[in-house]
Sequence to fold (261 residues):
Amino acid sequence: MSDQNPSLSPDGTAPEPENKPLFVGLMLAEPRLTFVLLGVNVLIFMYFFSLSADHQLQFFMDWAKINELIKEGEYYRLFTSMFLHLNLPHLLMNAYSLYILGRDVESLFGIERFAVIYLLGGLSGSLASFIFTPNPSIGASGAIFALIGAATMYFYQHRRLHGAGGRRYLNQLVMLLVLNLSLGLLPARSGFRLDQAAHIGGLVGGLILAALIGPAYQVEPDPTAEGGMHVVDHNPMPQWVLRGVAYAAGLAVLIVYAASA
Fold:
């Protein structure tokens, strides 16, 4: 019997290495702020709903995005309008979207990054509405589109890390975007129209914020375990906080400039 080299195939060539998937764990955050934001939106709507019709109108006049009043210096309206809803269907639609998307984004980004994306992304939507839409506007949809943008950017950047499942999720996000942006093209009903400018502004804000402050995961050898691998975030807190502050400062400058134009 002749000896055979086990590292060679029968034809004497080296076998092709097996391309096996590598499974590593991500440190996912527990989604908590999502439920806080849901509660805040619901409580504000319950208070609004308890008011008389005249007081409901005054409530909107006090806190909604109204361009003329923002130009007079009431910049806070760009923020407060994100937490107002016209009726129960409006609230339920945005609450459901926040519940589905918020948990995913908060789990992947962590509570701090999630808060920045929701608030600054929502303000980006309000600013776009202020610039391009003369009508009063309310609703959390700008912030929700920011979450869609952030999730889309994340799964595009990490499409190899998450494999086929991540690519399917990315495709679903793109389809969701196309569907929601298409709804904004429908004719207005009962005098109300979806604020397409806020949607696009929030989406762009979410995409940019995710690129600036989002996690940059890479799989690397684990020095604490021989032969092991782990996921490393190459966008540490000091770096992404600085980028977030720069984005907030730029947004503030744009708000002041647009209000004074």
Strands lie at 217-221, 229-233. The chain has one domain: 33-260. Confidence is low (pLDDT under 50) at residues 1-10.
